[in-house]
Design goal:
Blueprint lengths: L6 E13 L3 H7 L7 E11 L4 H4 L2 E8 L2 E9 L6 E9 L6 H4 L4 H5 L5 E17 L2 E14 L2 E14 L3 H11 L4 E4 L3 H8 L21 H23 L5 H20 L6 H29 L11 H25 L2 H16 L8 H8 L3 H18 L8 H25 L3 H37 L2 H15 L2 H16 L15
Antiparallel strand pairs: 1-5, 1-8, 1-9, 2-3, 2-6, 3-4, 4-5, 6-7, 7-8
C-alpha cells in the first residue's frame, strides 16, 4: 500500500560540487569497491504558472527510479548552506498526488492554483559508501541533462551526504577528493538550475537577499545568515560569469565579496582570529583579481558617445585599446574563479561559517556575545561607524582622492551593516528608510567622484603606452569625462550635508564592543 502522508525526514546535511571532465573516473579510483548502485533516474518538476513554489523557496518533483515513483518536496532548512527540509512519499505514477501536499507547508503557497510541469531532469546516478571509524558518508555522482522546452544544460555533480558522524567529516572527505579532481562547491540545486533554464531567472545576476535578522536573532546566527547569503551570491554569480562576460554579474560577485568582508569587520569580536585572517586574505585576493575588470567596465559605460563627440580614428583606437584591456582583465578574473584556490576558498569558507572554531570559543566574553541578542553588538558598532563617517567626511571638497575614497568605503560599510541589522534595531521604520536613502545617495555620489579618479588612472596608463594619436584621443576623452568634476564633487558634498541632518534609527549607545 502506498503511503498517503509525506514523511518529513531529518534535514539532509550534504555538500554538492560541480565536477569537471574525468572527475567521475577519478572518484571511482578513490574508493576500494565498485559503485554500490547505479540507477537511471528521471524527474519532472512542477510549479504554478507564476512559479509560486520557487519564489517561496520550494521545489516539487516526481522522480522515477525503475518502476518506483517518488514525490518529493524540498525546502532549504533555516537558511543553512548545506541543509534542506524534505517531505517525500511514494506515488502511483508520474503525475502529482495533490492530496499528500495538503500535509506540507506548500499547501498555503499553492492555494488553489494549478500545478504544471516546468522542466525535467534525466541522469545516471552512481552511489558509493565511504566509511571511516564511526563515520559514514554516501557519495553520489550524477551525470545527465536538464531540459526546459528546447533548452538543455548538462549535469555533472558530486554529492556527499552525511549518514553518520560529525559534520566535519564531510569537509575532510571533500578536501581529500578536491586534491584528486576538478570539483567546485555549488549551492544551486538541480531545481534552481532548471528554473533558470526555464526562464525564471534567466541569466540575470544574483543580487543580495535581505538579511533575515530579527530582534530574537543571536549574534552568531546573524553572522551565519549574512555570510551564507554572501557566499551563495559569490558562488552563483561566479558560475554565471563563466557563461558570458556580463558586467552586472561581475559587479554582483564583488558586491557579495564586499558584503562578506563587511560581515568579517562587523562580527570580528565573536570570530576566531585564525579563521578571520584566512577569510580576509582569501576574499581580498579574489576581490583584487576582479577589480581591474570592474574598473574598465565602469570606464566604458561612461564613454557612451554623446551627440557632440566625433567618432575620430584616434578615439576609436583608444576605445579599442580599453576593450582589449577589458578582455584581458576578464581573462584574469575567470582564471581566478576557475582555479583550485577559488575552489578551496568556497569549501573552507563554507566549513568555517557552519562549523568553524569561532563556534567553540567558550570563554565567557565570546560565548555571551555569540549567544546574546545581535542588538547588543549591532547598536554600538553602528554608533561608531556613523561617527567615523561624520568625522572623515568633514571638509570633503578639500580632501584628496585617497581620502575621499576612504569616505566612500566607510559609507558603503555603514550602509551594508545598517542593512544587516535594520529589522533587529529599527523602532522607527520611517526614520530608518530616510537614513538608508540618504546614506545610499552619499555612497552613489562619492562613487561618481571615484569613477573620475579611476578614469584618470586608466587614461594615464593608456596615454603612457600608446601612439601619439591614441594618446591625444585619450587626453580628449579624459577631459570630456572630468569637465564636470567640480559639479560631481559638489553633489557629493551636498549629499553628505543632507546625511548629517539625518537622525539614526537605532538607540544610541556609549559602549562600543568593536575596538
Amino acid at each position: 500500500m502506498l503511503a498517503r502522508t509525506p514523511a518529513k525526514a531529518e534535514p539532509e546535511l550534504e555538500l554538492k560540487f560541480q565536477i569537471g571532465p574525468g572527475a567521475a573516473a577519478s572518484l571511482a579510483d578513490s574508493f576500494p569497491t565498485q559503485a554500490t548502485q547505479t540507477s537511471q533516474l528521471q524527474a519532472v518538476y512542477f510549479d504554478t504558472a507564476s512559479h509560486a513554489l520557487r519564489d517561496a523557496g520550494f521545489s516539487l518533483r516526481v522522480r522515477r527510479d525503475g518502476d518506483v515513483y517518488t514525490q518529493t518536496l524540498k525546502h532549504r532548512a533555516d537558511g543553512g548552506l548545506f541543509e534542506r527540509d524534505e517531505w517525500e512519499t511514494e506515488v502511483a505514477g508520474a503525475h502529482l498526488d495533490l492530496e499528500v501536499l495538503d500535509a506540507t507547508p506548500a499547501k498555503c503557497v499553492i492555494g488553489g492554483a494549478q500545478l504544471e510541469a516546468v522542466f525535467a531532469v534525466a541522469f545516471e546516478r552512481q552511489l558509493y559508501v565511504w566509511a571511516q571509524d564511526n563515520a559514514v558518508v554516501q557519495v553520489s555522482v550524477d551525470t545527465g541533462l536538464i531540459s526546459a522546452g528546447d533548452k538543455t544544460e548538462p549535469v555533472a555533480e558530486l554529492e556527499l551526504e552525511l549518514i553518520k558522524g560529525p559534520p566535519s567529516i564531510l569537509f575532510e572527505l571533500a578536501r581529500t577528493l578536491q586534491g584528486k579532481m576538478a570539483m567546485t562547491l555549488a549551492f544551486a540545486s538541480k531545481a534552481e538550475r532548471g528554473y533558470r533554464l526555464a526562464g525564471h531567472d534567466g541569466t540575470a545576476a544574483l543580487e543580495a537577499r535581505r538579511a533575515a535578522i530579527g530582534p530574537g536573532t543571536t549574534a552568531g546566527e546573524a553572522f551565519q545568515i549574512v555570510a551564507r547569503d554572501s557566499l551563495i551570491q559569490i558562488a552563483g554569480n561566479s558560475a554565471l560569469l563563466q557563461r558570458s562576460n556580463n558586467p552586472e554579474v561581475l559587479h554582483q560577485i564583488r558586491v557579495g565579496l564586499r558584503r562578506l568582508r563587511t560581515a568579517l569587520k562587523v562580527f570580528k569580536v565573536i570570530l576566531d582570529p585564525g579563521g578571520l585572517s584566512v577569510a580576509r586574505t582569501e576574499t581580498g585576493w579574489l576581490a583584487g583579481e576582479l577589480a581591474q575588470a570592474r574598473d574598465l567596465d565602469v570606464f566604458l559605460q561612461n564613454t557612451d558617445r554623446p551627440d557632440d563627440v566625433d567618432e575620430s580614428p584616434g578615439r576609436a583606437a583608444f576605445l579599442q585599446a580599453i576593450r582589449v584591456a577589458q578582455a584581458e582583465a576578464y581573462e584574469r578574473g575567470l582564471a581566478a574563479i576557475q582555479s583550485p584556490r577559488y575552489d578551496m576558498l568556497l569549501l573552507s569558507m563554507g566549513e568555517w561559517i557552519e562549523a568553524g572554531r569561532w563556534l567553540r570559543m567558550n570563554d565567557k566574553t565570546h560565548r555571551d556575545l555569540r549567544n546574546g541578542p545581535v542588538a547588543a553588538l549591532a547598536a554600538p558598532l553602528l554608533d561608531r561607524w556613523h561617527r567615523r563617517l561624520l568625522d572623515r567626511s568633514r571638509g570633503l571638497a578639500g580632501l584628496g582622492a585617497p581620502a575621499r575614497h576612504n569616505v566612500r568605503k566607510q559609507a558603503r560599510s555603514l550602509r551594508y551593516a545598517a542593512a544587516f541589522f535594520g529589522d533587529a534595531l529599527a523602532r522607527h521604520p520611517r526614520r530608518r528608510a530616510a537614513f538608508m536613502a540618504r546614506l545610499r545617495v552619499v555612497q552613489d555620489r562619492l562613487g561618481d567622484v571615484n569613477d573620475i579618479a579611476v578614469a584618470q588612472n586608466i587614461a594615464a596608463r593608456t596615454i603612457g603606452t600608446g601612439s601619439g594619436p591614441l594618446a591625444f584621443a585619450a587626453g580628449l576623452e579624459l577631459g570630456r569625462m572630468t569637465q564636470h568634476e567640480a559639479a560631481v564633487l559638489d553633489a557629493a558634498r551636498l549629499a553628505v550635508k543632507a546625511y548629517r541632518q539625518c537622525k539614526v534609527f537605532w538607540n544610541r549607545q556609549s559602549k562600543d564592543l568593536n575596538h
